[in-house]
Amino acid sequence: QSRTSPPSEVEVISSRRLVDSFLKIDQHVIRHRKMDGGMSQPLPRMVISKQDSIGVLLYHKERNSFVLVQQ
């Protein structure tokens, strides 16, 4: 009896490093699983990292605002 893996929740379509210096800046194009089970349209995302840290800036399109979380 063979087992299959569940479908991936995120598909990385492409990735490329834009800056490789003190900060690392990568551009990714992804698709993610939607609530109806289908995949989203391709979405460009930027990742800025510095050694052992990373930050995320979330934008709420309908409210035209950014989502900030303190940890």
The topology string of helices and strands comes to EEEEEE
Strand order of the largest sheet: 1-2-3-4
Mean pLDDT equals 85
Structural class: mainly beta
Q: Could you estimate the helical fraction of the residues in percent?
A: under 10%
Q: Which regions have little confidence, pLDDT < 50, spanning 5+ residues?
A: none
What overall geometry do the principal axes of the alpha carbons give? globular
Biggest beta sheet summary: 4 strands, antiparallel
Give the number of helices.
0
The portion of residues forming beta strands comes to over 45%
Radius of gyration: 16 Å
Count of β-strands: 6
How far from one another are the termini?
45 Å
